[in-house]
Design a protein that fits this description.
The protein is built from 17 helices and no strands. It has 399 residues and is mostly helical.
Length: 399
């Protein structure tokens, strides 16, 4: 959430600026990890959404256990899960309909919509056995794989691409070489479903394709990601042996990362976040388990907790800061310039020359290149301060 609110600290733009004036290999590496990969593969930025989905499952293990302890019936909790799922789905539609669009944009690929669509189904697996949850996740991923592979009209040709679907021949040749037809951008089962489903809604113009290749049905395999998170949450909540719990998380991470890679490399199913391929669900879950294990080790076992306070401020109002980040970034940038001057995002450095190979030769060039980072950090800080005020006033926006 911090990464999103702070726009990745502007590292995408800053790395581009430095790459133009410096040949150091670190800048392309930073850029890769601060933007989404075009199709196959995974960088840091691609892990944000699966972390959200996984975290929802972890949190459910605790939240509904608390509701049950307060005497809520299964019927009441199911009603709450359905309502929460509906509100999250509609919030996603609301966020997708901004920025001058002529009417409601009925799109369900926003992370809130994806969580909302799967949330009631996730609740149905809460308080079930690990075996039942594992079978459900495996069945979901297998059914997704079958649906994509069995779809008869999948795929496109590299020579012609599919310009009418937003895929040029150049892009296809660069990113789809060796990729099975079932997993081609905007020419797969999920894209075909959207061309039917999304056109059932009132639209300013017919839906043809999603520019990024995302699909509504991503919520089905991403439900498996949430189920894996639910399993880990139950592991943590019921643990009696912290060392064993840590080992289990690490083993799960290893199995996920290696297993997902094997499925991708063998051609069974490529690792594609944009369509949440089954191998992506497994691979990204592995990294989520590693991250959870690291946090569990540092915070719960070692006891290093003070450093987490800035993150607690954000986590206590995650919906609020997400909405602010999605809606208010242009306004905050403009307001900061209005009150602090047009040069508020420009660093003023005058320390002569630098001889560090990582940077360009002029510190003035360095200052200009850093402007995206300065801007993103200051805008994100405004949102964090708003969350800090809400935190101290005990104001928490919940669904």
């Amino acid at each position: 959430m911090v990464t999103l609110a702070f726009s990745g600290f502007g590292l995408a733009g800053t790395s581009e600026n430095f790459a133009a004036i410096s040949s150091h290999s670190v800048w392309p590496w930073i850029h890769f990890h601060s933007t989404h990969v075009d199709w196959i593969g995974c960088g840091y930025w691609d892990m944000i959404q699966p972390s959200f989905m996984f975290m929802v499952g972890v949190a459910m293990a605790y939240s509904y256990a608390k509701r049950a302890s307060l005497g809520q019936s299964s019927k009441q909790m199911l009603g709450h899960a359905i309502w929460r799922g509906f509100v999250l789905t509609m919030l996603g539609v609301f966020l997708s309909s901004n920025w001058g669009r002529p009417g409601t944009n009925w799109s369900f690929v926003n992370v809130l919509s994806q969580i909302g669509l799967g949330y009631p189904f996730l609740f149905l697996l809460w308080n079930r056995t690990v075996r039942t949850q594992a079978i459900a996740a495996a069945a979901i991923l297998l059914a997704t794989w079958i649906a994509f592979v069995a779809y008869p009209s999948a795929g496109l040709t590299f020579e012609e691409g599919a310009v009418d679907l937003g895929v040029t021949p150049q892009w296809a040749a660069e990113h789809l070489d060796g990729v099975g037809a079932a997993w081609h951008k905007n020419a797969n089962f999920g894209a075909a479903f959207d061309r039917f489903f999304l056109n059932l809604f009132s639209r300013a113009e017919p839906f043809v394709f999603n520019a990024g290749g995302y699909n509504t049905l991503n919520f089905v395999p991403s439900l498996a990601t949430m189920i894996f998170g639910l399993m880990c949450g139950e592991l943590l909540r019921r643990t009696t042996d912290p060392a064993r719990t840590l080992r289990t998380l690490l083993i799960a991470g290893l199995v996920g990362v290696i297993g997902g890679q094997i499925i991708g490399v063998t051609g069974i199913c490529p690792i594609v976040k944009r369509i949440w391929s089954p191998s992506w669900a497994i691979y990204s879950t592995g990294w989520c388990c590693f991250m959870l294990a690291a946090l569990y080790l540092l915070i719960d076992l070692v006891g290093w907790r003070r450093w987490t306070w800035p993150l607690v401020v954000v986590g206590s109002n995650s919906i609020a800061i997400y909405l602010m980040a999605q809606l208010l970034k242009p306004w905050v940038r403009k307001t900061l310039r209005t009150h602090l001057g047009e040069q508020v995002f420009e660093l003023k450095l005058s320390f002569g020359e630098t001889i560090i190979p990582l940077y360009p030769s002029s510190l003035s060039s360095t200052a200009a290149a850093l402007e995206p980072t300065v801007q993103a950090t200051l805008v994100g800080l405004v949102f964090w301060l708003a969350c800090l005020w809400m935190y101290r006033q005990k104001i928490f926006l919940r669904v």
